[in-house]
Amino acid sequence: MTRTKRVYLFKRFERFWHWSQAALIITLMLSGFRIHGLYDLGVDFLTALRIHTVAAWSLVVLWVFAIFWHFTTGEWKQYIPTFDKIFLIARHYAFGIFRGEEHPYHVIPTRKHNPLQRLAYLWVKLMINPIIWISGIWLLFFADWGAWPVWQQWGISLQTVAWAHTIGAYMMLIFFIVHVYLTTTGHTPLAHIKAMIVGYEHEPVHHHPRDQAAPKAVENA
Ligand code: HEM
After folding, report:
1. How many helices (H) and strands (E) in the chain?
2. Which ligand 1 atom sits closest to the C-alpha of 192?
3. Can you give the pLDDT at residue 214?
4. Which one has a higher pLDDT value, 218 or 125?
């Protein structure tokens, strides 16, 4: 039996932000791929477009609050990239995890993402999201300024922008699949998901003098 201790990782706003963002992005992916013509799900094109636009604006509003929260609480620092132990962690996901080895990274509230998570979330925030947002806003306002001759001169046509938006959507889909898989790799398959719902994670306790100094915080899993 692994001994674990409860660690408070995800504050209330953070959990609200995470799950509403997830719901909106899932809605955007489902309606977006319908607009793209991958399937029709019994929803007509214009309805899918309307759902897509409302979900996108809702996500913009949520993001304004989330950015404000990250900067006022200092939580943005959790996303500063680091390559510390990165190979050990990649090795763990490639092999160690299938041999029941313990995760090489130990979470504490002030650094709750392992270096691979930091890089993945930063990639979403600085790469995937800007591609999707810039091309999405461009498509939305295409009739107003998206088709100006200057863009044509620069070789940016409706097709280029729609292509960038679709590439961004597939990048998000890949992130989504890998992310959901990795969230099931805690000490039980639902442990991380439960932590993102209730805020507390059960972290394994290590035989380190620092852990033994605080026996009251230790529970049995
Ligand atoms: C595409 C939609 C999603 C995006 C953009 C997203 C993004 C994120 C981000 C940025 C974090 C770090 C948040 C923080 O530490 O404050 C996170 C953590 C997490 N997400 Fe998602 N997420 C998405 C969907 C999901 C879904 C559908 C699930 C569950 C099935 C999920 C489960 C989790 C869990 C359990 C964590 C905590 C992981 C940990 O640090 O141990 N996410 N997600």
Report:
1. 9, 3
2. 35
3. 43
4. 125
Q: Relative to the CA of 175, which ligand 1 atom is closest?
A: 1
Cα–Cα distance measured from residue 54 to residue 28, given in angstroms and rounded to the nearest whole number: 9
Q: Cα–Cα distance between 63 and 195 in angstroms, integer? A: 22
How far apart, in Å, are the Cα atoms of 168 and each of 85, 91, 130, 156, 191? Answer: 29, 28, 9, 16, 30
pLDDT level of residue 57 (50, 70, 90 thresholds): very high
Query: Which region among 61-75, 166-180, 202-216 has the lowest average model confidence (pLDDT)?
Result: 202-216
Mutation choice for ligand 1 from 21, 177, 196, 197, CB with most ligand atoms inside 8 A:
196
Binding-site residues, ligand 1, Cβ < 6 A: 10, 14, 18, 21-22, 25, 112-113, 117, 121, 124, 176, 179-180, 183, 192-193, 196
Q: What is the CATH number of domain 3-220?
A: 1.20.950.20
Residue 137 burial by CB count (10 A; 0-12/13-18/19+): exposed, middle or buried? Answer: middle
Residue 54: predicted pLDDT: 98
By CB neighbour count within 10 A (0-12 exposed, 13-18 middle, 19+ buried), where does 55 fall?
buried
The pTM of this model reads 0.88
